[in-house]
Each structure stands twice: as structure tokens, then as C-alpha cells.
């Protein structure tokens, strides 16, 4: 890639499934990039997306990499396929984006980062929750009041996630691996790095093999304390899905994010509330706009990083720290002990 040219970067998508649809629609909103090829091991899916989105379809990623002239690849497949696909792209010299969780196992995730470093390609994990505009606005508001010293970052829902993602019911590690990875990343985004955590897990949904509720208590390097609360099985009316609930406190002041995209700033001088507004997209579902808009934002960030030759905010290297928190939470839940990080 020539960082000085303004020709659109040429990208390919691997994984034409449930969440991949948000990616391919998102790419059409992004300035400076175009998706020229799509790949799915199911040839019918690849062909359908090739027709719908005007891209060359492939059912084999290696063949696509051989035939197409690409600047980057965007991988939206199941976690167990992330390492082989990222390594394949790195060997082909392509910059690469990969969905969360980067991998189920830390060794695989570290190997992915090393492979991209060795090949000299950029590697970003598509960790989109910190790109949700309400979370970015909330952090700015909070920083104006000083660093937060106490708070909670919570994801509570009973929304039926299993119809679109039936594979989740089978995963032995469920809500921390699938959603905690986002919410722990948000906790890092708001509080910085952590020094210790304690975690307890439980289950509300009898069909699930893994834990679907978890409580995690964290201590930050700054001395701040926060909780990360996770539930996939709660009955709540109206259900907050897919909005995150956040409360950040500093001495004498607090900021809070509540559904839908509503921020409250509470200080001795003022009590101020406002709604964070998002652009409308023809393809987006208004119920899921916070998430869909964040996909466009992280994709735009990726294009800017490639053009300017800088490390993405959620680079593989950065995201290893989030994945380490996920694994520490499971270790704590299994041992019943506080885990030092
Ligand atoms: N960031 C978010 O908000 C968010 C939300 C949902 C899912 N996800 C993540 O997105 C990823 C995909 O989840 P999904 O629900 O879309 O899964 P999915 O099963 O619906 O889609 C995955 C697709 O990848 C294809 N595939 C698998 N291996 C392949 C290979 N080697 N080569 C080519 N194609 C291959 C499958 O055939 C399938 O079509 C997961 O990592 C999941 O955690 C992220």
C-alpha cells in the first residue's frame, strides 16, 4: 500500500454470516476503502454476497489472496478460525482486521500478534464497543470532571441472542468470552489498566453450556475500583439490548450512560442530560444503531491508521491486554481467588 495515494484501499471480507453483514454494509459508508472480494467456505453465501455487494466471490481464502490484489482483509468468522486466517493473511503480506474474541486461547492470540509483527503488517481487533459514540462522549464528559475513581460498566439483557448465534449455547465459556471481552475492554477504556480482579459466575439459561451471568470486581493502576456486570439471561422490560450501562464517579461528580444513548452529568453546579445523536444509514436497524454505527467508526479509524502508518487503538497488541482480563476472570471464578495481573 502506498500511504500517499488517495486511491481507495482494496479490501476483502472473510465470513459472510450474521455479523459480517454489518461489516460489509459498514464498508460502503467508509471513505477511502472498497470491498472488492468476499469469501465464505459456504460457496452459496459467498456468491450471494458477491452479487449483492458487487465483489468477486471465493470459497477459499488462500485462493482469494493469490488472485486478488488487496491492501487488507477483514475477518468475521468464528473465533477458532481466527488464528489460521490471520496467519494466512499475514504470510500473504496483507494488513488484517479480525473480529473479537481474537482467539479463545491466549497462546493463539499471542502467536497472531507475533505473526503480524514478523510479516510487517498492521493487525487490528474489531473491538467496536469503545467506538460506540455514547461511550466516547461519556469518556470525554468524565475526563472533564477528573479521572473516575469508582464506577460500573454493565451489560444486562434477556434479548434472544441464541436465534442469530446458536453456537453460543454450546460454548463452555460463554458470557465473559463473548460479551465480557467487550465490556472489560470498555472498563480499560474508562479506567486504564487493572492490577487485580475477582470474579463469580452463574447461569440463568438452562440450555447454555457456559456461564451466562458474571460479576467482576476490578482494581485499577490509578487506584480506582469498578465492577463489570454481565448477564445474557435477565428478564428486563424494556430490555436495554444492545445498549451498555455505564456509571463513572469522581469526587463530587458523576456521569451516567443509560438507554437509549442518554447521558447525565451530575455535579454540584449542574445536572445536565442529553441524548447522543447518530447518523442514519439506509441499511441500519434503528434498534441496533449504536452497534452498527460503531462498526462504521472503527472501519474509518482503520483506514486512517493505514493511511497515516499508525497503530490502531484496538491493535492486536492492545487487545491482548483485554483478553488477559477475560482469562483472569475465568481463573478467578474457578479458583475463588483474587487474581493479580
Ligand atoms: N463485535 C460485535 O458486536 C459482534 C457481534 C456478533 C458477533 N461477533 C463476532 O463475529 C464473529 C462471527 O460471528 P457470526 O455470528 O457472524 O458467525 P456466523 O457463523 O454467522 O458467520 C461466520 C461465517 O464465516 C464462515 N467461515 C467460517 N470459517 C471460514 C473460513 N475458514 N473461510 C471462509 N469462511 C469461513 C462461515 O461459513 C459463516 O458463514 C465471531 O467472532 C463473533 O464473536 C461480533
Say how many strands there are: 15
CATH architecture of the largest domain: 2-Layer Sandwich
At the fourth CATH level, what is the homologous superfamily of the largest domain?
Answer: Dihydrodipicolinate Reductase, domain 2
State the end-to-end distance. Answer: 38 Å
Q: Which of globular, elongated, flat, extended, rod-shaped describes the shape?
A: globular
Which whole number gives the mean pLDDT?
A: 97
CATH topology of the largest domain: Dihydrodipicolinate Reductase, domain 2
In the CATH scheme, the class of the largest domain would be: Alpha Beta
Count of runs of 4 or more consecutive helical residues: 9
Helix content: 25-40%
The biggest beta sheet is recorded as: 9 strands, mixed
Small molecules bound in the structure, each named once = nicotinamide-adenine-dinucleotide
Q: Whole-number radius of gyration?
A: 20 Å
Name the poorly predicted regions.
none
**Helix/strand-derived class?**
alpha/beta
Q: What order do the helices and strands follow?
A: EHEHEHEHEHEHEHEEEEEEEHHE
Strand order of the largest sheet: 14-13-12-11-7-10-9-8-15
Counted up, domains total 2
Beta-strand content estimate = 15-25%
Descriptive account of the structure:
The chain contains 9 helices and 15 strands. By secondary structure, it is α/β, with parallel strands linked by helices. The strands form 2 sheets. A 9-stranded mixed β-sheet has the order 14-13-12-11-7-10-9-8-15. A 6-stranded parallel β-sheet has the order 3-2-1-4-5-6, sandwiched between helices. A hairpin with a 4-residue loop joins strand 9 and strand 10 (225-231). The longest helix has 20 residues, at 289-308. It is globular and about 60 Å long. The model has no long low-confidence stretch (mean pLDDT 97). Bound molecules: nicotinamide-adenine-dinucleotide.
Amino acid at each position: 500500500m502506498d500511504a500517499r495515494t488517495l486511491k481507495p484501499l482494496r479490501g476483502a471480507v472473510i465470513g459472510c454470516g450474521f455479523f459480517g453483514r454489518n461489516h460489509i454494509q459498514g464498508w460502503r459508508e467508509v471513505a477511502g476503502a472498497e470491498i472488492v472480494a468476499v469469501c465464505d467456505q459456504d460457496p452459496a453465501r459467498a456468491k450471494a454476497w458477491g452479487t449483492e455487494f458487487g465483489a468477486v466471490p471465493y470459497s477459499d481464502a488462500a485462493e482469494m489472496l493469490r488472485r486478488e490484489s488487496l491492501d487488507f482483509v477483514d475477518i468475521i468468522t468464528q473465533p477458532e478460525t481466527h488464528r489460521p486466517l490471520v496467519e494466512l493473511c499475514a504470510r500473504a503480506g496483507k494488513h488484517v482486521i479480525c473480529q473479537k474474541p481474537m482467539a479463545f486461547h491466549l497462546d493463539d492470540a499471542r502467536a497472531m500478534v507475533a505473526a503480524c509483527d514478523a510479516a510487517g503488517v498492521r493487525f487490528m481487533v474489531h473491538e467496536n464497543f469503545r467506538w460506540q459514540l455514547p461511550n466516547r462522549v461519556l469518556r470525554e464528559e468524565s475526563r472533564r470532571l477528573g479521572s473516575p475513581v469508582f464506577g460500573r460498566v454493565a451489560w444486562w439483557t434477556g434479548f434472544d441472542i441464541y436465534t442469530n448465534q446458536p453456537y453460543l449455547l454450546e460454548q463452555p465459556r460463554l458470557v465473559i468470552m463473548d460479551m465480557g471481552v467487550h465490556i472489560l475492554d470498555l472498563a480499560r477504556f474508562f479506567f486504564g489498566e487493572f492490577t487485580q480482579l475477582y470474579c463469580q459466575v452463574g447461569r440463568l439459561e438452562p440450555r447454555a453450556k457456559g456461564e451466562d451471568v458474571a460479576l467482576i470486581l476490578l482494581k485499577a493502576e490509578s487506584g480506582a475500583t469498578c465492577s463489570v456486570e454481565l448477564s445474557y439471561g435477565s428478564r428486563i422490560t424494556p430490555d436495554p439490548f444492545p445498549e451498555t450501562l455505564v456509571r463513572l464517579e469522581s469526587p463530587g461528580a458523576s456521569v451516567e450512560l443509560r438507554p437509549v444513548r442518554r447521558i447525565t452529568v451530575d455535579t454540584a453546579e449542574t445536572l445536565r442530560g442529553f441524548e447522543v445523536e447518530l447518523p442514519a444509514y439506509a441499511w441500519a436497524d434503528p434498534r441496533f444503531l449504536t452497534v452498527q454505527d460503531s462498526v462504521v467508526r472503527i472501519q474509518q479509524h482503520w483506514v486512517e491508521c493505514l493511511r497515516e502508518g499508525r497503530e490502531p487503538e484496538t491493535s492486536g497488541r492492545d487487545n491482548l491486554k483485554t483478553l488477559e482480563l477475560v482469562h483472569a476472570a475465568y481463573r478467578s471464578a474457578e479458583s475463588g481467588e483474587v487474581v493479580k495481573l
